[in-house]
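Researcher: Here's my situation. A collaborator sent me these components and asked whether they could plausibly form a single complex. I don't have experimental data yet, so a predicted model of the whole assembly would be a useful starting point for our discussion.
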Amino acid sequence: MVDVPFDTVAGVPPAEVGEVELYHPRSWWTRYVFSQDAKVIAIQYSITAMSIGMVALVLSWLMRLQLGFPGTFSFIDPNQYLQFITMHGMIMVIYLLTALFLGGFGNYLIPLMVGARDMVFPYVNMLSYWVYLLAVVVLASTFFVPGGPTGAGWTLYPPQAILSGTPGQDWGIVLMLASLILFIIGFTMGGLNYVVTVLQARTRGMTLMRLPLTVWGIFTATVMALLAFPALFVASVMLLLDRLLGTSFFMPTLVEMGTLTKYGGGSPILFQHLFWFFGHPEVYIVALPAFGIISDLISVHARKNIFGYRMMVWAIVAIGALSFVVWAHHMYVSGMHPYFGFFFATTTLIIAIPTAIKVYNWVLTLWRGDIHLTIPMLFALAFIVTFVNGGLTGLFLGNVVVDVPLSDTMFVVAHFHMVMGIAPIMAVFGGIYHWYPKVTGRMLNEALGRFHFWVSFLGAYAIFFPMHYLGLLGMPRRYHDIGETAFVPASAHDLNAFMSVAALIVGFAQLVFLFNLIWSLFKGKEAGGNPWGAASLEWQTPETPPGHGNWGKELPIVHRWAYDYSVPGAAMDFVPQNEPPAGLSAQGPHA
Amino acid sequence: MSAIILFMAGIAAIAGWWLSQQRLAAKPWLEEGVMVDLREESTSSLPAAKLGLGVFLAVVGSLFALFISAYSMRMNMVDWRTLPVPALLWFNTGVLVLSSVALQWAYMAARRDDIDGISIGLCAGGASAITFLVGQLLAWRQLSGAGYFLASNPANSFFYLITAVHGLHLMGGLVALGRTAAKVLRGAEASQIRLSVELCTIYWHFLLLVWLVLAGLLTGWTDNFVDICRQLLS
């Protein structure tokens, strides 16, 4: 520590304790089910998200079975294949990742990391979860309605999304749109909480620039989500009216099954603009919390302060802002004006700058650090590799001339699975292995965890690395059965079979992970309060798992940033955020 | 999409201004100890509910800006037939202005700790808001009576949709207003409900502003202005 400018204010009393306003559960129901405690809500969010995520995982197995061994599984017909694609994408992107990062990690970590007792609007927070659950139930119900779930693709493009050629035209699409609308309402309730809690409920000494990067990531992502989700809301409501009441917001004049429809004059491109105005920020809504989590994991497990903290914060904010002006790079082949393509290609490539800053800073944090290859660290390293990988193919696809021939091929599928499938999931897993001891008081099993990591990481590469090659060959996406096609060599079919086997193995590893989550809850090694020796505030709670109200009588006072690791001359190799400056606790303030 | 881009630029300006006050250039690794005046410096003195309302209004604003974007993109298609504006709409607009004035009255009474003034303001505001909603319903009936149905033209579809969304937001506001009024009935002190009244007032003014923009757009009153903007942009 070079200079200590603020050590003369030792007499600052702890922030007033909002004990009076704190909500107190009175019964088992309000403690564990209709709870207003952010920690319980976080666990509810996480369990619900992971449960519906399992459904999406099984759908991916079914898709891979069909792709790897076409014609073998007679129970997968072309319509079902489209339904699997749609539901897999929608569930993974929105109902799993968004809900898990913001509803799960956000709810658990924000109050603890900023030193608050709870979210500022606990009742609204509880409502948020129950509306989310309703959205998930409505979504899941589409599997059981006549006609099944919609097969429109996760982008739900009109006109095909609501025409009779698309599976799920009767009920599936209606319930899907209703579920999305519910999700957005529920999310808005939660999002208001996350934003206002970060802004207003930080404890004494917790300035914005002392927040752990996880909070920065979740905070910025929430702001983006609050502003971007209305676009999906508007698109969903208007598409729903087109489907149910026969308006023509998006539907052009067209002939369906030989008869002229009642629609006329609408603009499918309008839907694409609205959808991607939400859809592109969504990528970063998922990525920014992952960035934050990874920054914290790397710093803790390399026992070194994060390199370039300020740059990391600025990069998060810059990425958040830029992500609102790139949406049309998803629409290069929609027939828009070439100048627009040029503009959006430029903005897209500019995002590479703040993103690259982050990657460099992670690598420089690792540089000459005391790297512990714990399971969270392994996942964090896997995240960096995978994200760089997916980011580089993003540079390919961001260019109009490269995108046009690759559009709608497996290359795109490989790209977005790398960058917003595998990479964020690696962050999720790393985060779970890292914070599970805080949530439950027990460590996850080490051997099972290492098995889970290596199979998931290598397996994911076995699936998606070859997929780039298939895309370059020209293999199209969304096809149930490619059949005998001249430009696809026989070896490509073998590769597809290999990828499918890899997908099943990776899927099995996830079951091991779920088993580990449950087994360790009862049999895991006792963790203690701070097993990783981490400096940030959530590890300094008086109880583990943190009790109701998080802190004891007084809120903690924050004296430093969250990354004081391996400080020369310090007693331990980390200094907790709430530890007073050295001279202060022993001898009082020195003049 | 220019409406939403403009709206986002406004949000970005506010966010940028706020961030510029937050010492983002601080070097936290050098600054040990409790910062002086950190409450005043870092978290603002606004009540959480007021800030929450502000964030919520940004979300609602984004929603309406997107509707306006969609409207202005769709209206350039060839099948657009502008629908006649029911004269009732102008009457409704006046009623909504009155409603906002009444709420402002209640807010000023709350600052004077005048509980009777609050009750009068809240009742008048609520009654005129309900009158506005009934008036909107009548305008819908007039339009559908004259053969302008929801699905017969995109201009009609947008008119019904946007007025419905605005009406729903007003109904949400009425719930909050009703809860505040109930507190007054149960004999709450003026100081206890001052914040609730203030939040209702902010919400009402915001919805009035949104309505003025929407009414200008839906009645074609701002068409010339929109054309000028479009020419400036292109």
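Model: Some features of this prediction you could bring to your collaborator: Residues 88 and 139 of chain B are 6 Å apart (CA to CA). Chain B touches chain A through 57 residues (CB under 8 Å).
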